[in-house]
Amino acid sequence: MSLKNKLYKTIKTSDKTINNNRKKLKTTSEINPTSLPREFYSVPCRELADSLLGKLLLRKIDNVILKGRIVEVEMYPGGEDKASSSYNERRTPTNEPMYMTPGTAFVYKTYGIYHCFNISALEEGGAILLRAVEPLEGIEEMQKYRSVRKKTPTKTQDLCKGPSNLCTSMCITKEICNKVDMAQSDVLWVETDDFSNDFEIVRTSRIGIDSAGIEWAGKPFRFYIKGNEYVSKRDLSKEKELDV
DNA sequence: AAATCGATGCTCT
DNA sequence: GAGCATCGATTTT
Question: What is the pLDDT of residue A169?
């Protein structure tokens, strides 16, 4: 057989393999029957932010499941929002996932050492930042991941409190998780359970974006479950307002 | 309980 | 070269 033919055969074979794999991965249910489907994510930021609250965030590493309930999120709709990294349709290699299929994980590094984890929504450049979850499963593993950069042990309540703490404890890194399609993943995905929908949502300002200017920093784009002990920064005056 | 401050490295302009 | 969707240790009220 000529070299040319050999190469041709190799290419053919690999094409076949790829196509077979595609067929295998054709539907969501075959990859991960439990993950919420595309339709869940294909809604505007505001709606996705709301519906993420109370849902379960799952992360699988080496067959170990880490699980937590989402209790705090922020929306970054892009466009006019000066706090969004996709402000004014700005596109860079880093923020590309914000423009990808709804349900794409956008994980980026900040301050050199920390990660932030977002999920893209329907809008071009729109995404939801996950700020806190209540740890439910794999808590010992989370402690391990978290203890890497810490001297003092962390209370369960504080494990996933804050966007980068959440990433550290659940091992959500840019290398592994960025651009993952959460509607078709068994590495990082969202599930629902019988958790009651009957909670109040506090709507208050986003954290750590003061440099975007008061107009946008002041918008009530941070949502969390009222009274929840796992939220990173509770706005008690807002919580009181809602009681009236 | 709050305020301050340094760590730390990558990305974009 | 500037700035960052943060955190944790330390210091101050």
Answer: 98
Judged by C1' against the alpha carbon of A85, the nearest nucleotide is C5
* Span A31-45, pLDDT tens digits: 888 999 999 999 999
User: Residue A9: which pLDDT band, with cuts at 50, 70 and 90?
Assistant: very low
Tokens for A177, please give them.
């998780």
The Å distance, CA of A18 to C1' of C12, is: 62
Statement: the CB of A127 is under 7 Å from strand C: yes
Burial tier of A60 (Cβ tally within 10 Å: 0-12, 13-18, 19+): middle
pLDDT digits (tens, 9 = 90+) for A55-95: 999 999 999 999 999 999 999 999 999 999 999 999 999 99
CA of A41 to C1' of C9 (A): 39
Whole-number distance in Å between A157 CA and B8 C1': 27
Burial A93-118 (b: 16+ CB within 10 A, else e): eebebbbebbbbbbbbbeeeeebbbb
pLDDT at A171 over 80: yes
Who wins on pLDDT, A144 or A16?
A144
Distance of alpha carbon A6 from alpha carbon A2, whole angstroms: 6
Minimum CA–C1' distance nucleotide for A149: C8
